Every structure is written in C-alpha cells, then in structure tokens.
Amino acid sequence: MFDATLVLIVLVAIHLAGAVAVYLTRQESLLTRQLNGIFGIAGGVMALILALIGLQRNLPGSGSTVLLSLEGVMPFAPLEFTLDRLSSFFLLLIAVVGIPVSLYSIDYMREYVSHPDQPGAHAYNLGLFGVAYQIFILSMILVVLASTTFTFLFLWELMALASYFLVVFEHRHRDTQEAGTLYLIMTHLGFVALFIGFMLLSGPALVGNTTLSFSELRISALALPSTQRDIVFLLMFIGFGSKAGMIPFHVWLPQAHPAAPSPVSALMSGVMIKLGIYGLLRITLDLLGGGPGWWGGLILVVGGASALYGILYALVDHNLKRLLAYSSVENAGIILLASGAALVFWSAGNTALATLALVGALYHILNHGVFKSLLFMGAGAVLQSTHTLDMESLGGLIKRMPWTALFFLVGSVSIAALPPFNGFVGEWIILQSLLLSLALPSQGAHIFLTLGLGALALTGGLVAAAFVKAFGISFLALPRSAQADQATEAPRLMRWAMGINAVLCLLLGLLATLLLPALQGISRAYLGPDQPTVGLAISGLEVRTGTDFGSLSPLLLGILLALLALIALWGLRLAGINELTRRSMTWACGRFTLSPRMEYTATAFANPLKRIFAFLYQPVRALTIETPGASPHFAQDISYRNPVRLWFEEYLYGPVARGIVWLARRASLVQHGSLHLYLTYILSILVILLVLTRG
Amino acid sequence: MLLLLLSIPLLLALIIWFLPASLRVLQLAHVVGATLLLTAGIGLFVQTYGGAVPTALNELLRVDLLSGLFVLLITLIAWIVGLYTIHYLMVEHQEHGVSLRGGRQFYFLLNVFIFAMLTAVTANNVGLMWVAVEGTTLATTFLISFHGTRAALESSWKYVLISSVGIALALIGTILFYFVNVQAGSEAEHALNWTSLRSAATSLNPEIVRMAFVFILVGYGTKMGLAPMHTWLPDAHSEAPAPISGLLSGVLLNVALYALLRFKIIADLRLGGAYTGNLLLGMGLLSLLVSAPLILNQTNFKRLLAYSSVEHMGLICLGLGFGGVFGTFGALFHVLNHALNKSMLFMLSGNILQRYQSTRIPAIQGLLGLMPWTGALWLLGILGLIGLPPFAIFASEFAIFRAGLTGGSALHLVVGIVGLILLSVIFAGFVAHNSPMVYGDPPEVMLAKDPPDVPPTGVGENDDPPVYPLWHTLREKLTWATAPLLLNLGLLLIMGIVLPPFLRETLQRVVLLLGGGS
Amino acid sequence: MLTSDGFIRILNLLSVGVLVTGMLILWRRSLLSAVQIFGVQSLLLALMAVWIAFYTGAAHLYLIAFLVAAIKAVAIPVLLSRIIRRLDVYTEIEPYIGVATSLLVGAGLVVVAYFVMQPVADATNLPTHNALPLAFAMVLLGLFITVSRKKAVTQILGFLVLENGIFMLAVLATYGVPTIVEIGVFLDLFVGILIMEVLVYRINQTFESVDTHVLDELRG
Amino acid sequence: MWDMIRKIRQVGILTEPLPPFPAEYTQQDPQVELVGGELQQRTRILLGRSLHIRQVDAGSDNAAELEIIALGNPYYDMERFGLHIVASPRHADCLMVTGPVTRNMALPLLRTYEATPDPKIVVAVGDAARDGGIFRGSYAIIGGVDQVVPVDLYIPGDPPTPLELLTGMLIALDRYRGKSSRRE
Questions:
Q1: Neighbour count for residue D128 (Cβ, 10 Å)
Q2: Which end of chain C has fewer CB atoms at under 10 Å, N or C?
Q3: B234 contacts on C by Cβ (under 8 Å)
C-alpha cells in the first residue's frame, strides 16, 4: 500500500517540477506541450491513488488522516492537509477529469503556437500557460485537502488567481480581458464572504488560538449562538455558491468559460465549480454539523432556480461554449438542489432520505465533471477546427469530424440524463429522493421539495431540448460557413481524451453500483446511519430506493436497451428493409442545390421556447433594414436581432456598479486640487480630534 | 556600526558633490555607497537581532530591534533603488535632457534623504527624530520637482507646505510629551529621550498624553499619508521621478509610521491600547474610505499607486488598531510587504512612463507584449498588491483582518467588515484598470516602422499623442531597469509562502516591543 | 530677584503682545507690513525667552533667544521682503476669507485654544502656565493664515506664525526643549524657508503668478 | 406563457354548434358515388390505405388545378374514396402532373420524380400535360410531361372534370397495381 503522505509530497513535487520544467523548455516547442500534459497526467494519477486510498480507508467516523502539518510557516496560521472521505471523493473527481484534459491539452494547445508564415504574430506564451496550468491543478488538489482556515483560503485564492491567468490567456481579445476582470472581481467578492464567514465561525472560544484548524472550528462551531451560525451559513453559502455558479452570482461563468482555452474551460466547469459545492458540503455537513431546515430549503430553492435559469439561457444562447457554461449553471443548480434536499431531510431527522439525496448529489458531481469536460473538449475540437463557436455558422461536422461528433453526442445524451449513460443514474437517484419526500411529516418541507421536484423535471426536459439544439445544429446537416466546411477531424490525442471520457460516461452509467457504495459511505460518515428506513440499498447490480419504492439496474437496463436495438436491427434485416433502400438526393422542393440557408437555425429552434418564456427573457427586437435607394422596397441588407435580456446583469449588477462609480465620482471631489482646502482638512481634523479628546 | 551606518550616506553625499561630472562615475559611486550601506544595515540588524541595543552620541541614537528592522528595510530598498537609477537616469539623461548637474543634484539629495531617514529611525531623542523627519521633507522637495514641469512644481509646493505644517503639529506633540515627562520628574536633559519617556510612561499625566498623541497622530499622520492629511501624497508621488516615488512610498511613509509607533508605545503604556487603537482605527478606515473612490476613478497610473499607498497605510493603521498579537504582527509584516511591493511598482511605473511617454491609463496598452519584463513584474506586482496569494500581502492582510474579526469586539468586527468591503472596491478598481494596460496589443504608433524625427518633449504632461523614438518599439530586454526588481518580487513570493524564521522571530519580538516590552 | 508676581505680569504682557501681533498679521493686507509685524512678533518672543532665562536662570535660553532674534526677527523678514520686492506682490488681494471674518474666526480659534489647552495649563504649577493657551492660539492662527490667504508669501508667513506658536509653547511650558534639538529645529526651519523661497521663484517663473490658487491642476 | 394563458381565459370558446342539415343537401351524385365507391374498394384492397398523391404544377394555367382542388370540396370529398394529397413526393405513391412542362420546371419535375419512392405512377392531367395543349410550339415549353418523366396515364381534357379525374384515377390504380406486382 502507498503511504498517503508520500503520495501527497510526490504529487506536489510533480506539479511544481512540471511548472518549472514547462517554463524552461522552449515556449513554442512540442516538448512544452508534451511536458505540460505529462506532468498533468502524472499529478492526476497521484491524485487518483490518493483518492483511492482515502475512499478505501475503513475507519470509523469521517475516517480522516492528517497527511501533512507544517507548523510555523506563517506564525498565525500553520499549513495542514488532511485526507478524509469527502476530500477523497473530490480528489477522484479532479483526477478523473484532470487526466484526460491534460492529455487533450497536448494537442489542443498547438493552436496557440505562431504560424510559420506569421512568426510571432499571435503567438502566446505556452510556458506561462504551463505554469498557470500546473499551479491551477495543484491548488485544486490541495484545496480539498486543506484543513486549516489559512491553508484553505490561501489555496482557494491561489486557485482563483491561477484560473484567472488561464482565463485571460488569450489576452489580446478585449472580451477575454473583460471576462477575466469580471471573473477575478466576482471570485474575490466570494472570497471576502468566505473570509468573514470563516472568521465568524471561529467564535470567541478561539480568540487566543493560533491555528484556526478545521478540527478546532468543528468544536467551536457547536458553541456559537444560533444567529451567528446562521450568518456564517449565509456568508459561506454566498461565497461558495458564487464559485459554484449559482444565481445571482453566476455572471462570471458564461463569460469566463468561452474566453478560456478549452482544456481550461473543461477543468473549470468540470472541477473548479464543484469545489464550491465541496466547500458548501464541508461547511454545512462537517464544520457546522447541520443546521435548521431552512438552510437546506434555501439551498434547494436557489439550486432549483439556478437550474431553471441556467438551462433557459443555455437554450437561447448560440455560442457553443457559452451554452455549455449556462448548462454548468444548471447542473450546479441540480447539485445544489440535491444537497439542499439532503440537508432538509437531515434536519427533519430522516437520514435515510438524506443519504439518498446526498449520494445523488455526489454522483451527479462526478457525472457532470465527466460529461461536461467531454462536451467542452468537443467544443474545443470544433473551435480548433473551425475557429468559431457560433452555432449559426457551424453544421455538417458529423461528416467532417465523425469521432468528435460521436463523443459530443455521447456527452449530450449523458447530460440529457438518458439511459444507459451516467447522467441518468444520478438524476434518477435525486428524483427518487424527492419523490420519497412525502414520507416527511412537515408540510413546509413538502412545498419546498415539491417545487424542487417540479424544477428538476422541467429542467430535465429543457436540457434535452438544449442539447438537441447543440448537437443537431452544430453537427448535422450542411455546413453554414466556409470554416465549417473545411473542418477536419481533431488530432489523435484529443480524440483519445474525448474517447476516455465518453467511455467513462458509459461505464459510470452501467456500473454505477460499483461506485455508489463508496458514496453511501461518505454520506453516512456525516449523516449517520439510515433512519428510519433504508434509503438506498445496493445489491449486486440493482439499486433500490426506499422500501421497494423504486429500483434500477443500470447494467441490466443497458444490456436490455442494447438487446432491443439489436433485435430491432435484426428484425428490420429479416424484413428485408435494407434491400428496398434507395439512395437519392435530399428533397429540396425540386430545387437544384441544397443551401445551408434552407437549414433550421439555432435561433429558430429556440424561438418557440423563447416566446413561451418571454416573460423571463424579455427579448429585445431590433430590425434594421438598409435601403440604399430612394425606394423603401429595395432593401440591401436586413438584419434582425432578438437578444434576450440578462436579468441579473441588467437589473442587479449594472445599477450597483453604476451607483458605486457615481458615488466614487462624487467622493473624488475630496481631492479637488486646492491647497487651501487640503490645509483646511488638517486644521479641521486637528480641532475635531482635540475637542473629542477633551470631551 | 551605528555611526558608520549614518556616516556612509553623509560622506557619499559629500563625495558626490565633488565628483567629476560624469553620470557613470556618479552612478558607480552611488551604487558602491549603497552596497556598503546595505552591508552596514544588515550588520546593524544582525547586531540588534542578537539582542544588542547599540547607542551612540550620549544616547542620542539608540537602535533596538524595531529600529533595526526599519534600518534593514531602508537600506535594502535604497540599495534596490540605487541599482534601478543606473538605467533610469541614463535614459533621462539621453532622452529627456536631464543635465549632469541635475544628475549630481539628484544623487546628492538622494543621499541626504537616505541619511535623514536613517537618522529618524535610529534616533533615541524624539526631538532629533522630528528634526530628521522634517529633514526628509526638505531633502525630497527638490527631488520631487526634479523634472521642473508645472505639475512637478505644483506638487512640490503642496508637498513642502502641507508636510511642514503637518510635521509642525507633531513637534507640538513632541513638546507636550517632553512637558509631561518633565512634569513626571524626569531629568530635563534626557526627557526627550524615548528611553526616558518609556521608563516614566506610567506616571505621565494621562490627559495630556491623550492630547499629545492626537498632535503626533495628525502630525506624523500627514507625513505618513493618512486621510484626510494625505492630500500631498498623490501629487508628490505621481510627479516625482520613479526611483524617488519608490523611496517615498516604500520607505518614507514607513519612517513616519515608525515615529508614530514610538509614541504609540509610550501612550499605550499609560492609557492602555484602546485609546490609540481606536484613533488609528478611525484614521485607517478613513484612509480606506478616501482612497477607494479615487482608485476606482483614477486615470493616472502613478496616482493609482499613490492612492494605494494611502490605502495600505490605512490598512497598517487598522492592524495596529485591532492590536493583539495578530493585528500588530500583521501590521508590521504588512509594512515590509508594502514597502517591497510598492517600491517595485513605482519603479516599474517609471519604465512604463519612459516607454509610453504618458501616465494616463488609457494610453498604456499591451504592456506584456511590448515590455515583457516590466509587464510581467507589473502584473504580478499589482495582483500581489491587491492581496492575492501567493504574494506576501495576502498573508499580512489575512493576519490583520483575522485580528479584527476574531477579536470578539463588536467595534472591531464592524470596522473589519467595512474595511474588507472597501478593499473589495479597491480590488475591483485595480483589476479593472490593470487589465487593459497589461493585455492586448501595444498601440499602433508604438509599432511604427519608421522612426519619428521629433524627439519627445515633456513627460506625460499633456494629452497630445506622444512621439516615440525607435527603440521604444523594440521588445524589452532584461536591464537594470527590471533586474533589481526581481529581488522584490522574489522576496514577496518567499515571504508569502514561507516566512523566513529569522524574520518571523524579529517580527514577534517587535510585537512584544510594541506592547511595551523591552 | 523679581517676585514671581511681577515676572508673571510681564510675561503675560509679552504673551498678549505676541497674540496681538498675530491678529495684526491677519488684519493687514500689505505683505510688507505683515512681514514687519512678524519680525516684531519674533522679537517679542526673543524677549520672552530672555525674560524667562533671566528669571529662571536657564542659561541655554539666552542662546535660543539670540537665534530667534537673528533668524526670525532679522534674517527671515529680510528674505521675505526681498521676495516681495522682486516679485512685485505687495498686497494680499481678495483672500478666501475677508478681514472682518478672519478676525472673528481668529477670536474663535483663541477660544478653542483655551478650551483645548486647559488641561495642560492645569497640569503644571509653573508661573508661565496661564499663557500656554495663547501659544496654542498662535499655532491655530498660523494654520488659519495658511488656509485663508492666497499668496504664497502669506502662506509662508502663516507657517512661520505657526512655528512661532510652537516655539512659544516650548518656552512657556518647558522653558525650551534641549538645545541640540532646538538648534536642529531652527536649522530645519531656516532651510525650509530657503527652499520655499526658491520654489516661490520657480513657481512665479512657470506660472507667472504666486497666487497659490492657480496650483490646482492636480486633481482626483 | 402568461399571455397565452390569459388569452385562453379571456377569449373562451368561439365555435358554435352545427345547425341542422337540410335534406336536399344530402342528395348525392350517383355517378360519383359509383366511381368513388369502386376507388375506395380498390385502394383498400390494393394498399390497405389511401393512395397518396403529390400534385406537381409544371407550368399549368391553373385550370387543371381548379378541378383537382374541386375534388377536395365537400361535394366530391375525394379523401373518403382513398385519395389523399400529400405535401412531399417522399410520401407519395402517385405524381399528378399538370401543365405543359415549362423549361424552368423540367428539372424540378425530374427531381420530384426521383424523390418519389418506388413503386410510383405518374398521371399527366389535362391536354397541356399530354402534348403542350394550347401552348404547343411555344419556345418556353418542352411540351408534354412524357418529355421529362415516364407517364403512366394521361387524363385528357382542358381541363378534365372532377368526375373524369376520379375515373382516371381508377385506371391509374390498375397501373399502380401492375407496377407494385412487378417488383415482387
């Protein structure tokens, strides 16, 4: 067996060495990219080992082990790293997503090497990318292991900084700069909330104490007055929620994800935003040890709202990566919803259901990590090949990049929660837990949970629509632009990386029963044994919820589906259908050529839903017709735009930012340039302070 | 060692006055002198670290660990600035018509300035300390108006008048301390000595001590750049030549802080920490409050940095005001971090100004592309300055706010949270100003193939599009203009991740000292 | 040896004289006469120092008195008069605050000074203690002059009045601070005034005015 | 969405109940019923569903169209006899082509023919479709549907009446049967 501490040290060494090595190699060489990928993979493997050690550990309670404790690095804050089950699970997530993404980045990043005909014109420094990349992964790994306040917050901000550098990597674009700025500011605001939260968590019991380690906080949190606990919870909820992308703090996400290079988007969406969930679970389950029912209710409601909001905006957004980013808001919402439900159940004393919901949340975290990174990698492959993400100029890629299309399809099916892929199992468990919630005695909880159930169901339908659009418009039919027409299949390593994730999507769907007991173990470590009945039972290949309420055998289901498909094919063959097939041109109402302008567009696809939800989108219609001549009937150029309103940007952040700037402009008059005014300040403050002192 | 330390800059000033007129020779002399000074500074620090408290001139000078720390800081930054001037002045000389006489004057005043600062932090006699602090004002006035532009003159007039008036108030405070000390029965000859004040501290008249501290706070606070007495600071720091800005912001403010600390120790011994603490909290919060909107609205990057100095001095005051082990420790740590970080940024701003010929933020684009060294250092410096890890300011701000938020005092909690919110505003301002400067492509004119004929005139004064000589379009190499600053960044990085044990112990001992220990 | 009563009377008389000169500076618009009044004030301070030295036997105060007389009563007025003549600015036109109001504010500042300095005056049983608030009133008056007057020369004058107030405070409260410090203070003051003079010349050259309200280009 | 719901609530149900049907309207044309009944029987036997027709206007003067449309009116109501007009040749068993195939419509007609799955029959409706009719000799026409696609049946007339059309379709069904049985 490996020694966990040793693994951790090796892991840190690998990433640091990686950062140095990548920086030292020639910036534009293949070696740079290879080293970056290899070190990333090696680190990921170490993280995987660590995760497996942690998950296997058969210790009572939360089963935590201190891996490393460095006293006196900062006199006011020792560094300490602890491995427990929750950390192990998130380590698993980082490794599972990190390894393929690192592999993917080797071929993907050649995009940023300058072209021979334009030396240095638009080259970006891959060495610096490597440094930020390694530090980013390292800080994510360490942040889930951190077990003192300083360690945690330090790494949390370091993670933000590293990801900021990655987001602004393509810094020549104005949009990217602005996305980076917004991201950094939003994440810092979240950090401030976290900082205050952690400080308030420490409470009066720890005034003289120097470590503020989690184990101390756990004890001091119990002694806090309940209002303070509530405030701490709210601050933490805001802080972690803003990282997870919950509304109304999600605004950075749809901007940062499209701006970042695709491997980074995959990592940020697949892993980093989950660390917000990690923090929230760590605080509510572990450090605060649960709370009143409204905590969970709040998380549930905000989660449900995020899920709906996210998917509704994903539907009407035609930038492939931004669509995926909104979909991340949605999935973070689903995870929050499930976590909130778990807390509600827990506070009601029904640990059986709480475990069920939490297992669902955890499983969805892993699943989303896998399929969202797959989808981002797919989008990256499309971007690399066509240099555009606008769906209205894509299309027909299934012929030109069949593998990418296949993998993207797998990702889309998974995210739409269709069996036998992994998304289905996670959402099924979450739905089961909500359906079983009638067992709770409280009426109030019913309202919340029913709302959550409705939100989840509606979301599920809309996700399918959104991804039908994403896949259908981008990959099927004819290419809508020359770039899309000239697209070529993604390079080999990128295909492998996507393939790994696609296979994982399938395996996590079919073999869910192998992993679920581990998640059950994590949940029970915090929630306690199932009460009053069994929430989630796993026997062999079958998952059962409640007392014979529902059951699912993903593997059998998968085999059944496959058999059905085979039977159908076989039946068709028997009926001789294939022989009757006649190939002819696509029917185009007798026209001679098919043109992409005849195709269904993403806008058109989304329009019915846009009209149904017009009360939300409040679409703005802008029709401009250019008529160069005197007659208004001969239009030269007609442009029609129908953008949706971004509520939070328009009605919340915009006014607040403008208000602050307005105030600041007023306040700047203090420095008005007059020497006499300045001297008056001194005279006034002197007299005021003296009189105050006398008084 | 103590007298040696003080004599080096004084002698150097004299030597420079009589040296033959060649910039290279002047620079060589200064760099050698600065290196010797650094050595002496380290020597003195090591001595005090070992527990010695050297005194000189009939206890007129006395160096304990607190002084030792500041001596180390001054000599270190002065050394880095000295190295930086090599490239900076050469460019000024070759391109902006700075005469050899000007160069000599520059180095002469620079050394007088350093001498005055070192005297201020080694003086035991608080009267002498006052004289030295006022001396720094006088030495720097002409350094600030070095470029002789309208703005430079305006700023130096404001600087000299506001600082003199402010410092004069500190003299009143000093006299009042002397007065109460004599009243308490101390020997008149030594009653201005800090050691005498401290030993008599508990028997001083509390009401007058309270009043005297107000004078001290307003007086040295002016020099330190606390709002609302900070008004000279953005003008002076933005108009001074870059190395001088670096020294002003990085060190001089801290010298004023040092003077304030000395009196705070005495006042605290008599009044308990709450009185001075609350005053400092008030001033600190006011400084944050004043600097936040001005940072958000800033269009001049040197003024941006200057207001950030107001902010950071405010933060240090908050740390001292919160008190306790962490607050004071954090404040002291922050002094070091801010000095290293801000001096680096001011010197970088000099590089940017020389290359882009403008101090306007919108005029600066594509820094990373055009000046990779300066740009990268600037970017990291700014990110460090606004408190992102792994740079050291994160750690010190953590300690400061930890002290405020976990102290159990409702007032501290409120001040801490308001402070954090203001810091977020400042953070947003910096990030928003910074990214268009650093990223993107340089302006078109900077990439012109043909060299313009007209040499550039003035330095960032008017809004006319500046004219660039050919070398301005070349990619920057590592030169004396950036190489010394790598040291700053390296130190910030190291201190942000692992505080070196000797520094940690120093700071802890100084914290005890500030608490009234010996 | 004089009685303490007589000593105090004369001391108070001198103090009041100093305050009156301070008020006169506020009142006069002619810069030259303001400078002369400042000279008189400094002379009164020197006399005060001599008087205290004579009464208490504090020998170092003689030296200080000499320095005050030499620097503040002679050298600096000469320097300032030279600036006034060279730059041809003889009157303070349109100060920010009019003469009448200035005098009222001055009176108010004296009251504030009394209020603030009462504990200091109460804390000591020195014969000089009654005059202490007057010294602080001078400080506030000096600050007020710098605040309310536009000409650079008047601002320098205000600063000097402030310095005189501090000096008076030191002399009255503690019979002067130790000589070395006092000498240092004088050195700083003298160099400071020289620097300000040079700056005034340069400002006059560059801005073609010594009205300091033109110096407001650096904002925000 | 709210708008929609509001609208539904505000407007209510607008349709009225059907008035009683006068007896004389129910009189039927025995000829039509005869031919139609035959058609209905045959389609049911032959296809087990309706015969799907795609109508192609290859440059007609719309006379034939009017008659074809008349087939759909309540009097004839051809759908009850198993004739169904569809929107795409992909769904059609039969192409009903009218007009003297103009040059511009030649290729689309061919495409339509290609797009129609086998077995299929082509019915040329009207004199113009047979040989150009009154347009014969015009430079703009090719002249007759059989110049472009193979025609299984001509229904003459300028234009043919609905009853002629129905009768023609009866014959067309025979042709269709011949084609589908050949394939087997």
A1: 28
A2: N
A3: 218
